[in-house]
Amino acid sequence: DAGVIQSPRHEVTEMGQEVTLRCKPISGHNSLFWYRQTMMRGLELLIYFNNNVPIDDSGMPEDRFSAKMPNASFSTLKIQPSEPRDSAVYFCASSLEPVNEKLFFGSGTQLSVL
Amino acid sequence: QKEVEQNSGPLSVPEGAIASLNCTYSDRGSQSFFWYRQYSGKSPELIMFIYSNGDKEDGRFTAQLNKASQYVSLLIRDSQPSDSATYLCAVGGGGNKLTFGTGTQLKVEL
């Protein structure tokens, strides 16, 4: 199994630009999570999906952030417009019911907004 | 108040010693407890989980849980330089959400 696949690995963009992060979960896993990691705040849950349905998006910082999961094998996290304070590592993770809490993380996307 | 608290470290231990990593949590309803290891520049990797009070051993790792004190710890016996990493404590409630601590950096010195 290839594990959770994220792209791109690195993204450098200018303030105001749209950023789209992509994730392919492990085949058969039916829960998908987007996390953001910074030195100051650690790992923060942004949103999670179960069976492609968003269950909890209370961690999404503001309306500039949106996430979709059109099918069981693909999810996107979009930031529009991006701001320097969005700079962080964004991780996608998946898990398998009923042990949803055992997360398998992707390699992450290092986002730098200049 | 942070929901999951860890000392950021760094915690330095000599090779071969026992490393003790600690975590406290605020939600008494928490039901599941996890330790993730994260090497610098890499993604978190699950190494231990525990659901019941007491100790759980897996190789050189022992997780300890005390729900009354809202305390969970990870012991690493015979510490090796390859154990040098940041260890993240994560706590789960009844749903599907994990809350992570900010991690403790462990350095195992030769």
Which descriptor suits the 3D outline of chain A?
Answer: globular
Helicity of chain A, in percent?
A: under 10%
Number of strands of chain B: 11
**Total beta-strand segments of chain A:** 11
Main sheet record of chain B: 6 strands, mixed
**Based on CA inertia axes, which overall geometry of chain B fits?**
globular
Q: Report the order of strands and helices of chain A.
A: EEEEEEEEEEE
**What oligomeric state best describes the polypeptide chains here?**
heterodimer
Total number of helical segments of chain B?
A: 0
The parts of chain B where pLDDT drops under 50 for at least 5 residues are none
Instruction: Give the helix/strand class of chain B.
Output: mainly beta
> What's the N-to-C terminus distance of chain A?
36 Å
Q: What is the number of helices of chain A?
A: 0
Q: Proportion of β residues of chain A? A: over 45%
Give an overview in words:
The complex is a heterodimer of chains A (114) and B (110). With 114 residues, chain A is mainly beta. Chain A has strands spanning 5-7, 10-13, 19-24, 31-38, 42-50, 53-56, 65-71, 74-79, 88-95, 104-105, 109-113. Chain A is globular, with a radius of gyration of 13 Å. The model of chain A has no long low-confidence stretch (mean pLDDT 93). With 110 residues, chain B is mainly beta. In chain B, 0% of the residues lie in helices and 55% in strands. Chain B has no helices and eleven strands. Chain B has strands at residues 4-5, 11-14, 19-25, 32-38, 45-50, 54-58, 61-66, 71-76, 85-92, 98-100, 104-109. In chain B, the strands form two sheets. In chain B, strands 2, 4, 5, 9, 10 and 11 form a six-stranded mixed β-sheet that branches. In chain B, strands 1-3-8-7-6 form a five-stranded antiparallel β-sheet, with no helix packed on it. Chain B is globular. The model of chain B has no long low-confidence stretch (mean pLDDT 93). Chain A binds chain B through residues 31, 41-45, 48, 50, 55-56, 91, 95, 100-108, and chain B through 32, 34, 36, 42-46, 49, 88, 90, 92, 95-103.
